[in-house]
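Quick one:
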Amino acid sequence: MGRKAGFRDEDVFGAVARLAIKGRGVVTRDISEVSGVSVGSLYHRFGSLDGVLAETWLWGQEALQPHLVPPVLTGQAKGGLGAALNVLSFCKRDPGQALVVAMIARATLLPGPVPDGLSPRVAAIDNARAEAFETFGAEVGCGRDTAELGILRFPLSCVQMYLPDREIPATIGGMVRLAYWAAVKRRDG
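Output:
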């Protein structure tokens, strides 16, 4: 029987997020230093730097997914608004995961081929979101890209103004509502 892990994955993911938002490349040595987890333990747990980065991306995105996709799949404009506000609430409630979701470019954490074993999880997120936004856009009449902008991208842009150092003010909810309705409103002629 193996030894019990002496660290939490979330501590490593938080370290990756703090390093990635600095805008430089993230390397294993720096993750080890910031997280307090040895390089050997990181490789043992995650297999490679790409494994640590991909698991960090998944940590944020999988946590957001249940707050985002189910309300979008209602196909109703109010469901989309609920999802947009859920994105904002998620970022307020989980600032570490919000850094991953809102502040770090996908290409930073998924720079190349996704490590074996993780690609089905990444594909599941991507496919569920694509289907949800496509369905919502068709049913509400705003199109897929506009649905994604109103429901996900606008709230994340609002959050980016404040993270990582400032609290997201309550007034941002009103801004997200306005941006959402401006984006998804049906265009007649």
